[in-house]
Amino acid sequence: MAKLSCDFRFLLIPAAIVFIYIQMRLFATQSEYADRIAEAMDAEHHCTSQMRLLIDQISMQQEQIVALEEAKKRKEQECTQLKALVQDLEKKGLQRIIDKTQVPVAAIVIMACNRADYLERTIASVLKYQSSVASKYPLFVSQDGSDPNVRSKALSYNQLTYMQHIDYDPVHAERPGELIAYYKIARHYKWALDELFYKHNFDRVIILEDDMEIAPDFFDYFEAAAALLDKDKSIMAVSSWNDNGQKQFVHDPYALYRSDFFPGLGWMLTRSTWNELSPKWPKAYWDDWLRLKENHKGRQFLRPEVCRTYNFGEHGSSMGQFFRQYLEPIKMNDIKVDWKSQDLSYLMEDKYTKYFANILKMAKPVSGTDAILKASNIQGDVRIQYRDQSDFERIARHFGVFEEWKDGVPRTAYKGVVVFRYQPPKRVFLVGPDSLRQLGIENA
């Protein structure tokens, strides 16, 4: 019995060892599972935080979307209101005002290069009278080249549009001793007129140079003349200049004439005329080219007796040619003529020849070597006939008017007749050898 009890106790020892081992394994397993559960709980907390962050971001984006949708609705409402306003203005006649009142009579362009001080004086003169009619006469300055002072001066005005002509092609004179400047000027004129007629789509353009001032009725004069240009296709252009417009040779600010000689120096032409001239524009000396009979094809030019422009440019491409004798003493009109009230139908081709012939017939013919002395002693208008160009130059020299001819035509002449005031208001008519026949008064 004692032996059996001893054996039982020996059996308890291994059982206790097994039990202890099992308990230790259970404890280790429980610890491992506890760690895993803790990790899982940490992961769950992290996921929950990330989800909440995403939910917050989505909520903010939804709020932004709502705000953008509200802004879009407001913009749509504003656009709807603006459209309604425009429609209302159109109903009240805005479109009629634009179509009938604000259509330009002509663009006015000041041709400039490198004389900033001259340009400033010209712009000031133009703006003095243009500001009240700006919608009828939009103002441009076209600069040839890149003179920084001219560019800066032009851009300092918000009342005008600046254009710049940069020509990178080399310029070569065709004859030795010619000034390159005349070639550059011709290129600039063609470029500027192409821009205004074809890019900006104007019907008429008035060309000024950067050394000119304008008269108080400059724009009214050109508006009246524009109607004549539209009606009478025998008028090639309208000028504000009279070559014999010096103070001693003018009197009547209302008097207008037709001329076979292109005056230039402040002139207006139409797009239809430019369509013809642009493709064959010359390389240089464009003004002399316009005076060739083959280019104006029997058409004539309108000019005033008293100039509507004054040229103060003593220094320029022409080196001041004729300035002291012919340009400086020019009389610029200082009277505000109401051109709208004037009947200018006498300038139409079908009436003017008869009108001018009647004036000429009333002038007393004077002849002989002392014709100029006789003219001085006659109270009314006189006419003196010249035999040829040299005879004309001799007579013109005595009076002091322009002697120059271009392509067989004296400056300012109509049918070979040059008219100017002498001891105003008396008029002197220098009559060509074939003038009376052309005017239908050969028996006068």
UniProtKB/TrEMBL annotation:
PANTHER family: ALPHA-1,3-MANNOSYL-GLYCOPROTEIN 2-BETA-N-ACETYLGLUCOSAMINYLTRANSFERASE, PROTEIN O-LINKED-MANNOSE BETA-1,2-N-ACETYLGLUCOSAMINYLTRANSFERASE 1/ALPHA-1,3-MANNOSYL-GLYCOPROTEIN 2-BETA-N-ACETYLGLUCOSAMINYLTRANSFERASE. Its EC number is 2.4.1.101. It is a single-pass type II membrane protein. The cofactor is mostly bound to the substrate. Residues 51-92 form a coiled coil. The lineage of its organism: Eukaryota, Viridiplantae, Streptophyta, Embryophyta, Tracheophyta. It catalyses: N(4)-(alpha-D-Man-(1->3)-[alpha-D-Man-(1->3)-[alpha-D-Man-(1->6)]-alpha-D-Man-(1->6)]-beta-D-Man-(1->4)-beta-D-GlcNAc-(1->4)-beta-D-GlcNAc)-L-asparaginyl-[protein] (N-glucan mannose isomer 5A1,2) + UDP-N-acetyl-alpha-D-glucosamine = N(4)-{beta-D-GlcNAc-(1->2)-alpha-D-Man-(1->3)-[alpha-D-Man-(1->3)-[alpha-D-Man-(1->6)]-alpha-D-Man-(1->6)]-beta-D-Man-(1->4)-beta-D-GlcNAc-(1->4)-beta-D-GlcNAc}-L-asparaginyl-[protein] + UDP + H(+). Its main location: Golgi. GO terms for cellular component: Golgi membrane. Belongs to the glycosyltransferase 13 family. Pathway: Protein modification; protein glycosylation. It is found in: Golgi apparatus membrane. This is Alpha-1,3-mannosyl-glycoprotein 2-beta-N-acetylglucosaminyltransferase. Its cofactor is Mn(2+). GO terms for molecular function: alpha-1,3-mannosylglycoprotein 2-beta-N-acetylglucosaminyltransferase activity; manganese ion binding. Initiates complex N-linked carbohydrate formation. Essential for the conversion of high-mannose to hybrid and complex N-glycans. Keywords: Coiled coil, Glycosyltransferase, Golgi apparatus, Manganese, Membrane, Metal-binding, Signal-anchor, Transferase, Transmembrane, Transmembrane helix. It comes from the Eukaryota. The gene is LOC111309143.
